[in-house]
Design brief:
This protein is α/β, with parallel strands linked by helices. The chain folds into three domains: 17-222, P-loop containing nucleotide triphosphate hydrolases (Rossmann fold), CATH 3.40.50; 240-411, Nucleotidyltransferase, domain 5, CATH 3.30.420; 425-449. It is built from 15 helices and 15 strands. The strands form two sheets. The chain has an eight-stranded mixed beta sheet, with helices on both faces. It has a seven-stranded mixed beta sheet with strand order 9-15-12-11-10-13-14.
């Protein structure tokens, strides 16, 4: 039980100068870190409770990308730190303070998880390891930073180079390339490295040696906080104003296809149509975690409704047979009503095929994505170039690769454009046949006529 008259004490005696700047910043958006070992989690786990104690009734949200990361990096640290200071309700993932303040803990494992916070109001939001969040998730959360009270409205973001959010975090806090709607005075970045964390250096000197032994690129990024070493959007051709279009009814003569990527963590599916000029249109998406083949197949068939789908492409590893049942995953898909066409998993060739479709010819490109395919639109430009193999994409974070992988399989398939619609009357069609017959004659000679 929390005693109202108890003197609250949270020890910050080991705070370093960079962490002190982080604690004192009054900007609306504060970025902190840039390298591994800069003491980011320590700073969050103390600043958040101190804000809750300082302002009676303030509402604070602390986020990590996954529940495991949230549990390991914050819940385990905050429970002993706030013992006797705040009451933790595990089912709600909330710390309740005697002055009415709330510290809520959350995570956004999938792109859509952030939507649970839509409509909510928070005075302070902490995003730990912000580069693991997509720009869509970040923008959704900024809309929650509001409230009709006198509390400060701030967002604190800790970050390291790399990850799905590398580009947008770098743009805001390192490159400082602001859009028209963004006020430069709202942003501050406090760069910190392991060399600023004297406590870590004294207690674990081997950590520096570990960072020193990393390969080129990772060493400069994670040890020194160099944002350029891991920069490299793979699909630099991607332009939302060109490649993303509003949905429309697909003409009946266009050819329709499906393509899937399947693993235990996610079943991903894209629906594509090809027009008369050979342009590709991604018009529907599906990406769900923890789906069995039977469940996922039922969902995909229901979404397809009565559409005529020419075939469904899948990676060739789905044809590997189980030693226990002698069946492959492709067999199980077929048994549940979804026969598959074996695709090519060659990564470099597949990615180059996608890049070719994204390449601008004038002011247009051959690949268009309907705006309702929100996850593909976020994941595709977030893929980073592999520093060790520039012709390939990084495979981490893994959760953003499923839909792009499905697209990659399809782009290696041989396809033909849809046939032009013949809008002539039957009389005109018969007249053309008669003329052709007269020109050729019975023996195919033009001289007959």
């Amino acid at each position: 039980m929390i005693m109202p008259d108890k003197v609250v004490s949270i020890d910050i005696s080991t705070i370093n100068p960079k962490q002190s700047r982080f604690f004192k910043s009054r900007k609306r958006f504060v970025g902190y870190g840039g390298a591994r070992g800069g003491g980011k989690s320590w700073a969050i786990d103390r600043k958040a409770p101190l804000l809750a104690i300082r302002y009676d009734g303030i509402k604070i949200l602390l986020l990590r990308r996954t529940y495991k990361d949230l549990e390991r990096n914050h819940v385990r640290a905050l429970l002993p730190l706030l013992d006797g200071v705040a009451k933790y309700v595990r089912q709600e993932k909330c710390f309740y303070f005697p002055n009415g303040s709330i510290l809520e803990l959350g995570y956004c494992a999938s792109e859509s998880d952030v939507l649970q916070y839509q409509g909510q109001e928070y005075d302070i939001i902490f995003i730990d390891e912000a580069t693991q969040f997509t720009e869509f998730q970040y923008e959704t959360l900024t809309a929650c930073l509001r409230g009709a009270n006198a509390f400060p409205k701030r967002m604190y973001l800790t970050c390291n180079p790399g990850g799905v959010g590398h580009e947008w975090v770098k743009r805001l806090f390192v490159s400082k390339k602001y859009r028209a709607s963004e006020n430069p005075d709202d942003y501050e970045f406090i760069a910190a490295t392991v060399f600023d964390n004297k406590n870590l250096l004294e207690n674990d000197p081997g950590y520096i040696r570990m960072l020193d032994n990393l390969s080129d690129g990772l060493r400069q990024a994670w040890r020194d906080g160099n944002w350029d070493m891991l920069a490299g959007q793979y699909f630099s051709e991607f332009d939302r104003s060109i490649h993303v279009i509003e949905p429309f009814e697909i003409p009946e003569n266009w050819k329709k296809y499906r393509t899937i990527d399947y693993g235990l963590d996610c079943l991903a599916c894209l629906w594509l149509a090809i027009d008369e000029r050979g342009n590709y249109y991604v018009y529907r998406e599906y990406a769900k975690p923890d789906k069995t083949i039977s469940q996922g197949t039922a969902d995909i068939l229901q979404l397809s409704d009565d559409e005529t789908i020419l075939y469904t492409v899948a990676p060739d590893d789905l044809w590997a047979r189980s030693q226990e049942t002698a069946k492959s995953k492709a067999d199980i898909f077929r048994e549940h009503g979804l026969p598959l066409l074996k695709g090519n998993r060659n990564r470099e060739t597949g990615w180059l095929a996608v890049k070719e479709l994204l390449t601008l010819h004038g002011n247009d490109a051959r690949l268009k994505i309907f705006s309702n395919c929100t996850e593909l639109i976020e994941c595709l430009p977030a893929l980073q170039r592999d520093a060790k193999k520039p012709t390939d994409c990084m495979t981490e974070p893994h959760d953003i690769t499923h839909l792009p992988d499905a697209l990659r399989y399809f782009c290696l398939q041989y396809t033909t454009p849809a046939k032009e619609v013949d809008n002539r009357t039957q009389f005109d069609k018969d007249l053309e046949k008669f003329r052709n017959k007269m020109l050729k004659g019975n023996k195919g000679k033009r001289s007959y006529f």
